[in-house]
Each structure stands twice: as C-alpha cells, then as structure tokens.
Amino acid sequence: MRNKGFLMAEMMTATVLLGLIIAGLAVSVNGFSKFNQYQWARQRCTAAAMAQLESATAAGIVIEPQELTRLWPDVTVSVERKPAEAPWGGLELVQVTAASRQVTVRLARYVRPQPAVAKGGRP
Fold it and tell me: Where are the domains of the chain?
C-alpha cells in the first residue's frame, strides 16, 4: 500500500528553501534601499551645487544659506573664489562644494572677475 502524505523531510526541505528565498529577498531589498538613499543624496548635493555655481557665476551673487537649507535640507554648500593660475590667468576660479552625510560634490568654473559694485548699484 502506498502512503499518500508528505514526509517530514520534504516539509523541512521546503521550509528551509522558502526561508532562504525570503532571506535573500530581504538582503537585496536592503541593498536597493541603501543604493537609492545614496543616489538621492548625490542628486540633492549636485542640484544644490549647480544652483549655487550658476548663481555665483551668472549673477555674481551667492544664494543665502537659509534659502539653501529650505530648498535642500541636510546639504551644506560652500563657495570659494580665487584668482586662476596659468594658463587661465585673468580669470577667476569659482569652486562650490555641496556635502551631506553620505556624499560630497565639488564643482568649479572659470569666469571673468566681477567688477566691484558701488553703493549706487552700478559698477
């Protein structure tokens, strides 16, 4: 006579395989989550740095820290201006650094120096 039920070994094997599949999925979802957090932080830092660099080079003014904090929370932005070295003599190097806990983005551009603005609003 043939037994029509599951054996205990078959049940244990199926349970172990199902557990391994669930554990593998949990590990991969966690990896995707960390990757997405890194990409999101990188995107925010890049956007903040590009906005500050465009403002500093096109208009000659920097975006206020309060406005940067409002637009990009958890991102700190710093701007450094210095005279360019050869072969870029006569230009000014504008460097912008945007950083969060995970990512640091540095952008730079050579521009013509901005003339000093007098109190009357004209150079």
Answer: 8-111
